Amino acid sequence: MKYTLIILVTLVSGLAIYVWMNQSPDIPVEELTERWAQPPSQFIKIAGMNVHLRDEGPRDDPNPIVLIHGTSASLHTWDGWVSELVSQKRVIRFDLPGFGLTGPHPQNNYTIEAYADVVVSVLDTLNVDTAILGGNSLGGYIAWATAVLHPQRVTQLVLVDASGLPFEAESVPIAFILSQYPILEYLLDDFLPISVVASSVKNVYGNPDIVTDELVHRYYELSLREGNRDALRARFAQTQPGDLAAKVASINVPTLIIWGGLDRLIPLGVGQRLNQAIINSELVVFEQLGHVPHEEDPIATVTAVKAFLSGSQ
Q1: Which 3 state secondary structure label does DSSP give 221?
Q2: Which residues are CB-neighbours of 7 under 8 A, at least 6 positions away?
Q3: What domain range is 157 assigned to?
């Protein structure tokens, strides 16, 4: 009994020390803005939020492309694509409510309908009548949901490992798992080891060896933006595949579906189902890439996008 008590006390003490050493309090948005909102970043007021946005490229482009990031990412995930597109296309990207520098929705509303409304509000604020919508993961779900709910605003779609249809994941990033357990809610408010973030980012890459410290720090710092951790829990609870999935077949705009063949979070079968449901679509698979192929190999994936845009314009 004595030795059992000693072991228990040692384990509890060790855990307490580990938690103390990995304390990660919220970071005020003002502190993060200096690093992550360099020009051409701007903030626009939408639904009570200061939405972090970048609007680049020729202003006379009648059909700009809007790029929408996935869960726990930010507009920076599209840097590689933007550098290749911006000489010919107007490219708009922004941090979704609950992520990046935009931070939480004031009404804690993370339904797919609310996200689609934000997309439309961004277009309205920038005086854009119609646009090409591109999105990865949650961003892909938002893109095709906007095409279903507001078809008059969408001319084409680029869906990158998009969610929104029911699926069974083969592997889920540990940060996503932890955020969905209410029992850990209070612990995670001030505790987020950077090793958890590193493991989660590597989990969604086809080749985890190319994940850099700089990339991990970006994800880590922006996840600590005040309010983002609470928002992540709400997003998982509110934004799940639902009735809208039955309306995917109503999409009739030209659609490019890009998928990483090594995606273990949203398997390729989901991309194949989207390809079957959307009549005017094509599926391009990058066999050696994972869940964020646009980030893992931006040049190869944006080449497919350029070919798609040139062929449908």
Answers
A1: helix
A2: none
A3: 27-312
